[in-house]
Automatic annotation (TrEMBL):
<keyword id="KW-0413">Isomerase</keyword>
<feature type="domain" description="Mannose-6-phosphate isomerase type II C-terminal">
    <location>
        <begin position="36"/>
        <end position="156"/>
    </location>
</feature>
<dbReference type="GO" id="GO:0005976">
    <property type="term" value="P:polysaccharide metabolic process"/>
</dbReference>
<protein>
    <submittedName>
        <fullName>Mannose-6-phosphate isomerase type 2</fullName>
    </submittedName>
</protein>
<dbReference type="InterPro" id="IPR011051">
    <property type="entry name" value="RmlC_Cupin_sf"/>
</dbReference>
<dbReference type="InterPro" id="IPR001538">
    <property type="entry name" value="Man6P_isomerase-2_C"/>
</dbReference>
<dbReference type="GO" id="GO:0016779">
    <property type="term" value="F:nucleotidyltransferase activity"/>
</dbReference>
<dbReference type="Pfam" id="PF01050">
    <property type="entry name" value="MannoseP_isomer"/>
</dbReference>
<dbReference type="GO" id="GO:0016853">
    <property type="term" value="F:isomerase activity"/>
</dbReference>
Length: 160
């Protein structure tokens, strides 16, 4: 099983356009979806959410995250975005906190959703198998949207 190919098939089935792909992250990789398809992405992966409540500033950025077994993304937060995640395949762990101190892990299973507020500390952790997350970056300032430079890493297993 190749989770990257599985994710690509899911995106192709829904006619979602991949604008960026990275299979080389030390924790796995991701697909970035064309922002013009954010509403369609939300309808597919977050049908229980109203688009007007997802859209904080007029701009949303959809992604698919693929997390390798036993790998941890950095303990991080963002100044210019909130995020919503839905586990669409597998099972992952999430740690979140309003302070720099990591709290207990919570298991996120297939079809479960989690909402992260702007500035909330968080970490995604792979468990025994690959996990797939549908993610929407909810930009809090459309005139200065969040990007990779908006990742404030408090701890990182990969020295970034």
């Amino acid at each position: 099983m190749n989770i990257f190919e599985d994710a690509k098939k899911i995106l192709d089935t829904h006619h979602l356009t991949i604008t960026k792909e990275d299979r080389t992250r030390p924790w796995g990789g991701f697909y970035v979806i064309d922002e013009s398809q954010a509403a369609e992405f939300a309808k597919i992966f977050f049908p229980e959410e109203r688009l007007d409540t997802l859209n904080l500033s007029g701009r949303l950025s959809p992604k698919i995250l693929l997390v390798a077994p036993q790998k941890r993304l950095s303990w991080q937060y963002h100044h210019r975005r909130a995020e919503i995640w839905k586990c669409i395949q597998g099972q992952l762990a999430v740690i979140r906190s309003s302070t720099d101190e990591e709290s207990e892990k919570r298991i996120l299973s297939t079809n479960e959703t989690i909402k992260l507020q702007q500035g909330e500390r968080h970490r995604l952790i792979g468990l025994d198998d690959w996990g797939m997350i549908a993610e929407i970056w909810q930009h809090t300032d459309a005139s200065c949207p969040s990007d990779e430079d908006d990742i404030i890493r408090l701890q990182d297993d990969f020295g970034r």
